# Entry
Amino acid sequence: MKATLQINGTSHTVEADESTPLLWVLRDHLGMTGTKFGCGIGQCGACTVHLDGAAVRSCLVPFNSATGLEVTTIEGLSQNASHVLQRAWMEDNVPQCGYCQAGMLMAAAALLREHPQPTDAEIDGAITNICRCGTYPRIRAAIHKAGKRLSAKE
Amino acid sequence: MTHERGISRRDFIIATSAAAGGMALTIFSLDAQSVGAASKVPELTPWIVIAADNTVTVRVPGPEAGTGGMTQIAMLVAEELQCAWEHVRTEPISFPRNTREADLYIKASGIWSTFAGGGHAPEIRATMLQAGASARERLRAAAAARWNVPVNEIEARESVLRHPGTSRSASYGEFAAQAARVQLPSEPTLKPETAWTVLRKQNPPRLHVRSVVDGSSMYGIDVRRPGMLYAALAQCPVHGGKLKSFDFEAIRRMPGVRGVAVIDPQEARIHLKKPAYWALTDVQSGIAVVADHYWQARKALEALPLQWDYGPGVEKRDTQHLYDALYARLNETPDTLQKDFGDAPKLIAEAGDEAVVATYLTPLSEHATLEPLNGTALVTKDKVELWHPAAMAAQAQLIAQEETGVAPENIEIHMPLIGGSFGRRVGGDDLRMVLAVAKKFPGTPIHVIWSREETFRQGRYRDLQAVRFAATLDKDGLPEALVAHVAGHTPVTLGLFNSIYANGCIPNVRIETSAVPMHVLTGQFRGPGYNSQCFFIESFIDECAARAGIDPLEYRLRIVSKWPDSGWTKCLREVAAHSRWGQKLPPRHAQGIAMGNWGMEDKPFTGTTIAAVATVEVTETGSLIVHAIDVAFDSGKVLNIDAVNAQLQGSTIFGLNLCLHEELHVKDGQIVEANFDSYKMLRMADIPPRINVHASALSGHDRYGGTGEVGVGVVGPAVANAIFRATARRIRAMPFGTDHAG
# Structure
């Protein structure tokens, strides 16, 4: 089936089998490999993208159900890695293997939109993704750092 | 100088190739993909190429799997080359060239430099520092010749050559071509470590981090090649079983399906010996569906009728059966004597019921790398090209040679980023499966993806091990004799007692091992052997301390006082001070301690030593809360403290995962857990609020010990020993979970 998707501000018409998750349309049909495949059952969060600003796990979203919504992927989070979270991530050398980090960043970006200066409990509640390397303490610190900068700007 | 700062890492190669029906456009990022892309520019050494735009390309023998090893190798070059870090990028060494030119690279850097995380080993350190110095001196000589001034008046710093006397300057890039033709009369002497300005001083952004945060990163699973097809793989759910039949007609007309590849272990293969001998890489019986897209391949595979001959593994092979077999083996005569000094058995026999005796067990665990297993290969009659997330490139070359029969000088190895290895991608059994599929489609790049379920069920798991200990204590309460019988699934990782106990600190020691063959496949797992055995010995020593009525810290301090390497004492004292060992804690709170070493080769002043204190609470309802984990370590010295902190923090969490939750079950010969819904992993909310890594125990001894593995071993026993002190209940098996009621 055919569907037209709005991804990172650009319109894409995709033809794929009806059951194809948004994740695989992004990765295989559109070549946007920044969104990662981790588990396929919505557990690990490596495939997190935004649908109209809300964090969702794209491995569980049939691609045509994203029609009419604005899809944002890691490639569209900012120009030149300038998002406050991306900058904090680079400054603090947060990633180890890095595979989970696109999903972490997208989950954290959705969190900051709702809670610009989140508490530890809010971070615990929103960041349910899995990192096998154990970068959680640095992720938490980088979110706090980004939150402080956001609040200082406002 | 036209180079814009910071731009080099954002450059892309755009490659076009004529494909049926028009031009296929593929974009791939430089650092992952471009073997020899810099080859048109003259090289300063086989390791270093500087382009006219000032970009410094460092050729690395091993990939990046998260330890920062690739960055570490580039930093070694940057130290002596004195180039600006923002101009540095990496590309893989050419393995075909290495073979053609008499082992040009590996002879100098050592086989373990091709391992992800091998960047701290002495050979690669010396080689890369020398390469950097050599390139710098060629640049200086070229500038001196052009400007007609003495070479010792030329300064080389931050990628700029200067002659202060005549106020002339030029970028490295401007002189790179001339410098490549310079013959040095002799290789330059390296700076003393005290003159270093990068190593031990700076913590530059790791080279892959920018691409990770902007989504341009290129992992194995992100490889896209012109004309590439996707494959979904199924292997026998019972390890060792065989594919009996399949019905391709049932899926032939499904969308995108191009064919299937049957993987047959009976096919003739070459068997090379080195260094593959330590890894179980035998091909497994299976089948792959090949299609235009992965989702199509996966759906077709799910619909494909398959019949398996499960083989002997299916009979009476449940988890308890495996555990019982290990425990039973402990009661029988051991296979192999690993170590024997003094007269431990006699002392223990004489002690009778007074001996301290205990049995421990650790289960099978899955690496659960977040990037599922995958790989891409293009096989033709006389050439192989790999874009595979292999954690040891030299091993990948051997596997490719074995599986395809192609000569090593025709096996090209690209190094995409690796989304976690922890030992899983070292042996190359995954690459063998990729090649077994790809060689059935000669001339077409084939990208094979294991589903998460297939990744879980076709693991090469952490070895299943059990031990029986017996000890006697001397008049002061310290261990006088220790007998250990370790039974494990494979003998490969046995006998690795990285502990001072088995190297003189206990006067009478006998260690024996027994292999209990099982059908479930195991392999390298972060800190092989140590990740079980540190739990065994550090828990048991705690039992001895309790029997002697001596504080567990004090007990260990007395034992390590017999060891010539005072780093152990320092680690214990520092971790005790930082965790405020002995402080008055609220009710139901307690601390536990453990120590260990990875890489010590039975000698003092080797590897990295560590001590850990866990501060825990077991609530009235029996819930375990880990409030803090403190670790103090001695690797001698460190090259990059931030990278070391990351490894120790990460391996501490890795160790916590292992001891609390990780256990694979077997039912009817098959692995039960297949995804993260049934195999629990720690998430943000589960992480102790304080994980503190203390560098204050560093001895400064002249070595750079590795820090990837050592943290994994000590966390489990530190937490278990803390639970004992909170509840008086001794934990003798992993995983022990968070429910400690009753």
Observations:
- Residues 1-38 of chain B have pLDDT under 50 and may be disordered.
- Chain B touches chain A through 66 residues (CB under 8 Å).
- The CA atoms of residues 278 and 391 of chain B lie 15 Å apart.
- The two ends of chain B are 73 Å apart (CA to CA).
